[in-house]
């Protein structure tokens, strides 16, 4: 039995205009020059245009805002009508986005098309179905109400200088970062990075994105007005299509700045002398070790100056312990003025202090010690209407290859002991 045997006798009387207008898909008919000769109601509704705005117009006469699945604008050659006329083949299941004035998000349509060659008048028939509900970002309302900041980016353009483009941010993000949604969308997350953003952290994130893998990091970001803040960031790949291709990345950001402040306070308290605000012995052990490891990799060394306030017990006995505390604090202020950026000033305990001097040999350290000693010798400390003069004794030792901090500190102590036993108020270099 032939196909036409199934056709109803009244087929020729069907109202095709009514049929097309009631289809749940858009239908547009073009001439080969791309001019539009027909569009059904669904097509007009999806495109947000009237009949007069469509009919008779060539596709190239209107600046259509078409985008591909990654959000990039389509070139004219990539428009469905041009793909069909160029290839002379049917178009099957092409997904494109249409940006329509007044809408924040694009409409996504599934496009099919072919050339109809009946009656020697070729026409291009294009149909499209609104699939926005399947292709728009999922759970948008939930994300807007989340307590953490959320950024969604495309999964393309990982490499610099572009970076993945931001396609969504929620309200918490705008509050934390200071960027409005319009200011953030279309940009790259690199707008949040700054001088103190750790490069190693960024490299790990970049590698995870390239591999389409989830990652969690703590990162230091900057707001629009360049205020820094700490984030605990979880990033994971997202597929919003049926074929499960990775098209986006979601970054959930929790502001942990207050936690970091508390953590830093505990760290500072544990490593800082409460009276002088210099490093304590524990802080010296930690930071000097870090510096020594760095120096060793560069085949460089350091020097240590250990110092004691001469006859400090007499100050406590003659003036009181509170006056003694003032003397300790005044000396610590002076030490801070003498140190360079990478130097460490330490209160080892009681009236004993130390300086850790990277990239400094024993001769340079001796010059620093002598300048400091002479400055202190002429220093007059005023405390409760009392004028107090002090002197210090110092021992100096060097470690040219940054091999052993404990040994160098012991050597500086031995030189200090020699300075005390040979009259005080002097600096002595340790020699084997």
Task: Map the helices and strands.
Blueprint: H1 16-21, E1 26-30, E2 36-39, H2 41-47, H3 51-54, E3 66-67, H4 80-87, E4 91-98, E5 107-116, E6 123-130, H5 132-135, H6 140-144, E7 149-154, E8 166-169, H7 171-177, H8 181-184, H9 199-210, E9 215-222, E10 228-238, E11 248-255, H10 257-271, H11 281-297, E12 302-309, H12 312-319, H13 321-338, E13 344-349, E14 352-358, H14 362-377, E15 380-383, E16 386-389, E17 392-399, H15 405-421, E18 427-429
Parallel strand pairs: 17-18
Antiparallel strand pairs: 1-2, 1-6, 3-4, 4-5, 5-6, 7-8, 7-11, 9-10, 10-11, 12-14, 12-17, 13-14, 15-16
Helix pairs in contact: 12-13
Account of the 3D structure:
- Helix 12 (312-319) crosses helix 13.
- The strands form 4 sheets. A 6-stranded antiparallel sheet has the order 2-1-6-5-4-3. The chain has a 5-stranded antiparallel sheet with strand order 8-7-11-10-9, with helices on both faces. A 5-stranded mixed sheet has the order 13-14-12-17-18, sandwiched between helices.
- It has 432 residues and is an alpha+beta fold.
- The radius of gyration is 38 Å and the shape is rod-shaped.
- It is 34% helix and 26% strand.
- The chain folds into 3 domains: 3-135, 2-Layer Sandwich (Beta-Lactamase); 140-261, PAS domain (Beta-Lactamase); 272-429, Alpha-Beta Plaits, CATH 3.30.70.270.
- The chain has helices at 16-21, 41-47, 51-54, 80-87, 132-135, 140-144, 171-177, 181-184, 199-210, 257-271, 281-297, 312-319, 321-338, 362-377, 405-421; strands at residues 26-30, 36-39, 66-67, 91-98, 107-116, 123-130, 149-154, 166-169, 215-222, 228-238, 248-255, 302-309, 344-349, 352-358, 380-383, 386-389, 392-399, 427-429.
